[in-house]
Amino acid sequence: MRIYLIQWILILRLRGEYMFQVRTDLALEVRELYQEEKQQEIPGVAVDQESLENVTITRVEVFNDEGEKLMGKAKGKYITLECVALRRPDADLKDEVSQILAKELRNVIDIDKPLKVLVVGLGNVHVTPDALGPEVVSKLFVTRHLFKLYNKESDEALAELSAIAPGVMGTTGIETGEIIKGIVENVKPDVVVAVDALASRKMERVNTTIQLSTTGIHPGSGVGNKRQALDEKTLGIPVIAIGVPTVVDAATLTNDTIQLVIGAFSKQAKTGSQFYNMLQELKEEEKYHMIKEVLEPYSANVMVTPKEVDEIILNLSHIIANAINIALHPGIDLKDVNRYLH
């Protein structure tokens, strides 16, 4: 077993295959992978972290070509809100996180002028872990029809907000990017806000993390099924993306479990045990790729989500919809949202 494990580690290191291939949509996690490997900050990337009572905010900005290449992420801002308690149905906490997310959203969108906004809820409403986008859209205070009805160009209290949940290609037969591009050409919004489910490399971040970015989104990326990008290059207007990791793949979950087992056995092993010392020194990516190769012949690299996912998605959709409503509509506060929109 020891010889086999050592051989596998050497093969992976000679291939150089493990860097940045763990499935994740979070810029925060890509940065962690680089730091773990290089023991330094990524060139071309600026990072700022703020710790609040219940929420940790990490702001990652990729500001040049070198950072874009090393991160594998487009230049722009990636803001991550982490709150372990998000999995619990706590109404006060939901309101707090909504307000924090709304503040961050205002900081990346120019709302000093009347806005026309299109919110796109990506995902499959019939698959609960992928239903975040459509659930958010169902809770928005849409107003475009009112602007058209009363022939108004702007309003001090409201943004001209429209929303769409375009479904997935498997049910529409149409590329999501094509649908959104056609809507943008006709509706002519100033900005698109796209909401989608993501994937994480750590089970602890599933359903406890919200990422806000200024670089757009790839529909289906959460389950490794990337489609045409929704970004400023394809749509011609800024695209803000909001996502929550709702799944991990089986290799990631197994990796986390094995890490716990290694830690437990290492504590019980004799001091200086070469075998357990070697296990402890394994990089996360090395363990991940060994597990993935073992699972591959059995087609076992499935996506995993918590069993309480129905309730969690409902809570998260409330948080994100509330944040969008109070961030984009100047005349609406959280009290109005909770009173009239649920």
From TrEMBL:
Q: What Pfam families does the annotation carry?
A: Peptidase_A25
Q: Which residues form a coiled coil?
A: none
How does the record describe the protein's post-translational processing?
Autoproteolytically processed. The inactive tetrameric zymogen termed p46 autoprocesses to a smaller form termed p41, which is active only during spore germination.
Name the Enzyme Commission number(s) assigned to this protein. Answer: 3.4.24.78
The record's catalysed reaction(s) read: Endopeptidase action with P4 Glu or Asp, P1 preferably Glu > Asp, P1' hydrophobic and P2' Ala
Top EC class, one word: hydrolase
Name the keywords, alphabetized.
Answer: Hydrolase, Protease, Zymogen
**Any single biological process term in GO:** spore germination
MF term (GO), any: metalloendopeptidase activity
**Propeptide residues?**
1-25
Source species, domain of life: Bacteria
InterPro entries in alphabetical order: Pept_HybD-like_dom_sf, Peptidase_A25
**Residues spanning the signal sequence:** none
Subunit text: Homotetramer.
Q: Which family does it belong to?
A: Belongs to the peptidase A25 family.
Q: Please give the HAMAP family that the UniProt record associates with this protein.
A: Germination_prot
| The protein's role, per its UniProt record | Initiates the rapid degradation of small, acid-soluble proteins during spore germination.
- Name under which the protein is recorded: Germination protease
